[in-house]
Write a structure and sequence with these properties.
- This protein is α/β, with parallel strands linked by helices.
- The protein has three domains: 244 residues, Glutamine Phosphoribosylpyrophosphate, subunit 1, domain 1, CATH 3.60.20.10; 194 residues, 3-Layer(aba) Sandwich (Rossmann fold); 152 residues, Glucose-6-phosphate isomerase like protein, domain 1 (Rossmann fold), CATH 3.40.50.
- It is built from 19 helices and 24 strands.
- An eight-stranded antiparallel sheet has the order 3-2-4-1-10-9-11-14, covered by helices on one side. A six-stranded antiparallel sheet has the order 5-6-7-8-12-13.
- α6 packs parallel to α12.
- It binds 2-deoxy-2-amino glucitol-6-phosphate.
- The site of 2-deoxy-2-amino glucitol-6-phosphate (AGP) has 15 residues, from α8.
- 2-deoxy-2-amino glucitol-6-phosphate binds next to α8.
Length: 613
């Protein structure tokens, strides 16, 4: 997800823009840039890498002026490079644009413009926009607003835009379609931003632009128009997030911030463990190749959310390798007589590394001669100290009691382990490994798109949050997703929820179906008949007037005919779909809890780490 900030007022623009971009760093990015109007024209500074590189450039060559736009870019079309960094300029240098989203018809627009003599400096879809606006100006648009509106009527896709025009030195334009963008209204100054965190320390009043709206900002205030250039209605709202919540990056809760951190964290974790040649590097596992090749049994133990990750790990490792994987709740494992010995690798999964039952299980396994490794988020935790090796999830501190980013990083850790085992043991051919690594690299972006649909997910949560219970159904890789979605809903909204393997419907749960029971069905595409079986489950629920909330793959309109509400998620390899699907369920639970007014970061009766039995 890219980050956008804009400013117009009495102060120097550059420092305000940089401050705002720093507050959007949680969104992840790989390049950054600013455009500032100094009264005589537009000036641009861009750099690859972290904001520090842009700050260094500005220290050498400051940009004067009190009107500007800034951007952090998460590369989609075109590699991370200075040429592809935003802002992008029109050929005459009189129009600067920053953009979040994708212009889906950018290829045909580029061809049309190139045929008219336009030359492009980047590989991006974004660069077509300043060219289009320039062409509208040259074709006699009556005003800057008219030129922008005419250009946007030709664009298809999703955009949140910040625009500067050399001919309007005291104005910032903004526009949105499908990508969030807000306008901040201060005292004698105005802002635009991708999200409240960027300007929570500057303004107490905001306008949430609607799709198809264009805003014209000056220091004195804001005007809003539709795509035909006609004045459009808008509402000025109070900023509900407290400025001192800066350590939450301006989010209303830690949990919401941590949900939004997931794309960046997963991308960093992947980058850390998979090198440019596709080698999987797990140095802290301390298991040599001979040991890994000689394994015939893994036993995974965990509690709560971590157990759902272990369940996913079992399904995936057995899907990709010849290994047998058993799993058990740590609170049960420690009191049973599980069949583990020196030939078993015990895998302990824990965010905190301090969970009493998990630690007790590790000690018992050690006493049986097992090698023990952990998937853990906390360096130097008790678990890490007691294990022979570790796969760190690197999620950073997880403050919200309900686990979100810890869970998806646990899932990714299992993916890395499974592919590493499959390659070492010869269970998968190299092309099959590479195909999966390629699909894995697309997961963070897919999660971005789910996050950008949070408004739609909130509307669904608002409809269904007040019932006594809800049912979550999934199949195969997404059975753990269903259980995790139900757990999220239980622990933060206090509404009872139950996760079930959808194939179990006829064995009991179908008796629960009635018109007041929301049934969340994970029905994203699979490469075999499992998808059809899931659709049959949806029809069973529909036939009994259950209220279906379906998770479906983008474009799967057939599901919309059966479900009352649909949350669309980008197409992902089924094996990795849990990493994307669960984010939609995290948000669904989040907004249900918000509607029910619970203490989301610190739900009643719960502790972040259960260090006692
Ligand atoms: C998850 O939302 C809960 N906070 C809880 O189930 C948690 O996953 C469980 O207590 C295990 O904690 P751990 O991962 O730190 O061992």
């Amino acid at each position: 997800m890219c980050g956008i900030v804009g400013y117009v007022g009495p102060e120097a623009a550059s420092p305000r823009l940089l401050d705002g971009l720093r507050r959007l760093e949680y969104r992840g990015y790989d390049s950054a840039g600013l455009a500032v109007h100094d009264g005589s024209g537009l000036h641009v500074a861009r750099s690859v890498g972290r904001l520090a590189a842009l700050e260094a450039r500005l220290a050498d060559s400051p940009l004067a002026g009190s009107v500007g736009v800034g951007h952090t870019r998460w590369a989609t079309h075109g590699a991370p490079s200075e040429a592809n960094a935003h802002p992008h300029l029109s050929p005459d240098g009189r129009i600067a644009v920053v953009h979040n989203g994708i212009i889906e018809n950018y290829r045909e627009l580029r061809e049309e413009l190139a045929a008219a003599g336009h030359r492009f400096q980047s590989e991006t879809d974004t660069e077509t926009l300043p060219h289009l606006i320039q062409r509208e100006v040259a074709d006699g648009a009556a005003s800057g607003l008219d030129a922008i509106a005419a250009a946007l009527r030709k664009a298809r896709g999703a955009y949140a835009l910040g625009i500067l025009l050399a001919g309007e030195p005291e104005v910032v334009y903004a526009a949105r379609l499908g990508s969030p963008l807000i306008v901040g209204v201060g005292e004698g100054e105005t802002y635009i931003a991708s999200d409240v965190p960027a300007i929570v320390n500057r303004v107490r009043k905001v306008i949430y632009l609607e799709d198809g709206q264009i805003a014209r900002l000056t220091a004195a205030g804001v005007e809003v128009f539709d795509l035909d250039g006609r004045p459009a209605p808008f509402e000025v709202k109070d900023v509900t997030v407290s400025a001192e919540s800066a350590d939450r990056a301006g989010f209303e809760t830690f949990m919401l911030k941590e949900i939004h951190e997931q794309p960046r964290i997963l991308r960093d974790l992947l980058h850390q463990h998979v090198d440019a040649d596709g080698r999987i590097l797990l140095p802290d596992l301390h298991l040599d190749e001979a040991t890994l090749k000689g394994l015939d049994h893994i036993f995974a133990v965990a509690c709560g959310t971590a157990f759902h990750a272990a369940m996913y790990g079992k399904i995936l490792i057995e899907h990709l390798t010849s290994l047998r994987v058993d799993i058990e709740l740590a609170s049960e494992f420690r009191y049973r007589r599980p069949k583990v010995d020196g030939r078993t690798l015990l895998l302990a999964v824990s965010q905190s590394g301090e969970t009493a039952d998990t630690l007790a299980s590790v000690r018992m396994a050690h006493s049986r001669g097992c090698r023990v490794v952990s998937i853990c988020n906390v360096h130097d935790s008790s678990l890490v100290r007691e294990c022979d090796g570790v796969l760190y999830t690197q999620a950073g501190p997880e403050i919200g009691v309900a686990s979100t980013k810890a869970y998806t990083t646990q899932l990714l850790s299992f993916v890395l382990l499974a592919l590493h085992l499959a390659r070492l043991r010869g269970d998968l051919e190299e092309p099959e490994i590479r195909r999966r690594l390629q699909a894995l690299r697309a997961v963070p972006n897919a999660i971005h798109y789910v996050l950008e649909r949070k408004d739609a997910i909130e509307r669904i949560a608002d409809k269904h949050h007040d019932g006594p219970s809800s049912l979550y159904l999934g199949r195969r890789f997404n059975v753990p997703t269903a259980l995790e979605g139900a757990l999220k809903n239980k622990e933060i909204s206090y509404q009872h929820a139950e996760g079930y393997a959808a194939g179990e419907m006829k064995h009991g749960p179908i008796a629960l179906i009635h018109e007041y029971l929301p049934v969340v069905c994970i029905c994203t595409r699979t490469e075999d008949e499992v998808y059809d079986k899931m659709v049959s489950n949806l029809r069973e629920v529909e036939a009994r007037h259950g209220r279906i909330i379906a998770l479906a793959t983008d474009g799967d309109r057939a599901i919309a005919e059966v479900a009352e509400d649909v949350i669309f998620v980008p197409e992902t390899l089924e094996e990795f779909s849990p990493l994307v699907n669960v984010v939609a369920l995290q948000l669904l639970a989040y907004f249900a809890a918000k509607a029910r007014g619970t203490d989301i970061d610190k739900p009643r009766n719960l502790a972040k780490s259960v260090t006692v039995e």
